[in-house]
């Protein structure tokens, strides 16, 4: 049975998709080959800007890190999300203030956050409980004085000296499943785990109004406080319990035993980012639902901007396993489209095409004739032309952008394709 949400409550059960890989260049669908124009300034894009005039292959000097990760876009690390400037280009090109954009794979909420900046209403769906929580924290409207008081209050309480009576919640207490207790004890030093559990207990017992934001601070601190090498934060293979040669810092490093320093660091950073977003956000609404887009009937929208998960590439639940175990989030890994657990062979690819098409069929049913469905994907296996044919959409263009990973051990370049489809 299809689920049809109400738009009355913008945060009923809340929330770009994701993993990247090499992709050969794809030229625009029509028109002669021309010299590559200068990198596009997203703020200068209008509905009249020709697609041929867009150069979306921004270099570091064109689009520095502080611009790509502005305000709440870096509220929490999220591997594989697309950058806000890419979303901004197509919001300005195809949407007007007061219209509504849909992202059926909301992920970390990039489309939703950027839409609000431009006065465009936004609705997102995601099967991941962590993504839902992250989007809710980004999109909530905060009383800045109150949120500061709460963030500093819980930080002060968790920072009090441990005299042996305040040890936080033990992982053997009710509320922690056996698997969660085992994971937390394996991946955290006892001192760091005690600090994290105390912070979690305070969220549960102190009646804070902005508990979702506090959970994101806690999750972000937990990610950094694990017993892992600094260069393996995305997908560590095993706990790091002794000194090691750090490829990130080019020196010997040791795993952390303290989570409090990260709670302090990310508390300050979070307050700054929330305040920065408050200065640029508009009155447009954003609704986020914890739902499977294959089984959801979407409300009326004007178009779609999304980046779906890719087949057999990234396990998005595993990426945030520490948050699922620490916060007790519902895990729906089996509902994830393209999960690595299903492999990446031909049967998995065919299943992926069917399921992505199913989501987009629901999206098209909610769109008017002429509405655009804009999909960002590193389509290495060339799966999307068959999806377009199955949907019966008009292919307006396929744009290509080159991307350079700039940090860590994942510094190789890769490519993305932007499929622009029009509903007949």
Structure description:
The protein is of the alpha/beta class. It has two domains: 42-141 and 286-422, Rossmann fold; 159-276, no CATH class. The protein is built from 13 helices and nine strands. A seven-stranded mixed beta sheet has the order 5-2-1-6-7-9-8, with helices on both faces. The protein has a two-stranded antiparallel sheet with strand order 3-4. The two termini are 27 Å apart. The model is unreliable at 3-34 and 163-168 (pLDDT under 50).
What coarse outline follows from CA principal-axis ratios?
A: globular
CATH homologous group name of the largest domain: Vaccinia Virus protein VP39
Low-confidence stretches: 3-34, 163-168
Overall SS class? alpha/beta
Total number of beta strands: 9
Largest sheet: 7 strands, mixed
CATH architectural grouping of the largest domain: 3-Layer(aba) Sandwich
| CATH level 1 name of the largest domain | Alpha Beta
Report, as a whole number of angstroms, the end-to-end distance: 27 Å
Mean pLDDT: 87
- Beta-strand content estimate: 5-15%
Number of structural domains: 2
Given the structure, what is the number of helices?
A: 13
Looking at the structure, the CATH topology of the largest domain is Rossmann fold
Proportion in helices? 25-40%
* Cross-sheet strand order for the largest sheet: 5-2-1-6-7-9-8
